[in-house]
Amino acid sequence: MKFYLVDDDSDFVDVMTALLEAAGHTVFADIAALPAISRIVTKRPDCIITDMMMSEMNGLELCAELRRRDELKNTVIIMVSAKIDDHWRNRANEAGADGFVDKPLNVETFVGQVEEIIAGGPRKTSDAPAAPEHSLPGRR
């Protein structure tokens, strides 16, 4: 499978990349959401994994933006975050995420968790969300 990772923590991107590549997957990555959008459209990954909390454009906004694009309707989007309570999981779901993986990652189970979410498939286009109404705390 082809993955696209978006996280502003390059060390975290390196860990996810190593785990996914070790499982035989192809991985592309960016450390910022805005430049990632056009690259994601060009690369057409099977799955996008994005951090929820990033500067400039957060993962919720990125997810909602990607969900509005017809060319990505069959792409699975997974949100990763240390914000693990139901409120944040619901926000990720509302933004259009297909699944959620907690930070810190469990290196023993990460690839299995991702593959399980992918097996569930992407959202139907009728489920595409509207843009999030509220930005995250601490945004400029």
Structure in words:
There is one protein chain. With 140 residues, the chain is an alpha/beta fold. The chain has one domain (2-123): Response regulator (Rossmann fold). The chain is 38% helix and 18% strand. The chain is built from 5 helices and 5 strands. It has helices spanning 10-22, 33-43, 59-67, 86-95, 110-119; strands at residues 2-6, 26-30, 47-51, 76-81, 99-102. Strands 2-1-3-4-5 form a 5-stranded parallel β-sheet, sandwiched between helices. It is globular, with a radius of gyration of 14 Å.
Mean pLDDT level: 89
The H-level CATH homologous superfamily, spelled out, is Response regulator
Highest CATH level, the class? Alpha Beta
Written as H for each helix and E for each strand, in order along the chain, the element string is EHEHEHEHEH
Helix content, binned percent = 25-40%
Shape: globular
Our count of domains comes out at 1
**What would the CATH topology be?**
Rossmann fold
